[in-house]
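ok trying this again, last paste got cut off
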Amino acid sequence: MNEWKTNKLSSLGVIQTGSTPKTSVKDNFGDFIPFIKPADFQPDGVIKYENDGLSEKGLSESRLIKQNSVVMVCIGATIGKVGYTTIDVTSNQQINSFTPFDGLLTKYCYYAMLDDSFKRKVIFSSGQATLPIINKTKWSNLELTYPDDIEEQKCIVAILDQAFSDIEQARAKTEQNLLNARELFESYLQKVFSQRGEGWEIKRVAEIADTCLGKMLDKRKNKGDLKPYLRNLNVQWFNINISDLLEMRFENSEHNRYSVKKGDLLICEGGYPGRAAIWSQDGEIYFQKALHRVRFHNTVYNRWLLYYLYISDGNGTLKASFTGAGIQHFTGKALKNLSLPIPKENKAKDFVEKFDAIFEEVMNLEKVYQKKILSIDELKKSILKKAFTGQLTQSDKPPPSKGAAA
């Protein structure tokens, strides 16, 4: 029976923390050796080498990470992100590297550090600071469990390589199916709005709807009878998220002006200008200045404008209505002057009903596909857990991927 051991990383290989040579010295940078950063880590552990690099001079002021090393992000939002090198590299100080001694496979160590149990150790050791960080000493003291027989390590790596390859193929097919469904929906919208039929008109939004920007928050007067209100962040495409509402004071004289009623269209003025959704609840709510409220006399046109904004955002034409070089805004004036192609009322109603039906079908498919993706992620975790508790066998290989996304 193969013996399994558990030892600290410091006793199993060479550990280093990356370093950045002086950026003020341009001669430190070049294409002599790759200089990797957290953004170069790919989901499958492969590292992008073609981004930044150091010169031979820059390498002399940095630290060489030998090929066949495991690298991990040890600071910031992506702490615990892990990969492995296939060539000699250097890295910045956000990355720790582990080059195993003989008798321990790099790919085995990569998979071991990919396992949730190891990642939890990294997070726990990073402390509770706003910016999580695990230093070289703490990282060196983390323990790794492994079979003493290198042939057993090779067997585990071979099974994981095959299993993960099949899993990623299933994920790719699932995500492509979801993308295809969205593209079919968007293609139909584009066709309707571009190939306008007989009787269509071009109207400015101000001609056929009432628009209004919300109220600016005044923290000095924000006391007393406070009301929940919608912010830019609450409005997503086709959905209004009310799980994170803030409160603001609205005077009695402001209730009509700044309230949202069922059927009203809300559009982001900034942040993600043009993004829109319809308030579908019976109760009223209020809205802040970063949002537009649009109210047509016939609510079918609220949904008509919603779909028009969505496809115009997708094909890039909506940007022509934005102002600002850096942070862009969809101003009240721009919204009022937006040219909206509209068919006759009955025709618009028919189109909107068709749009709604297709959109609902796409959303149902998305739920199914997202559930499959979650199942795929759970399968990866399950296989990794078995691998590092000595329970992995050839029977743990997943079924062929051809039906995984069906």
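PB: full thing came through this time. The chain has two domains: 4-148, 201-342.
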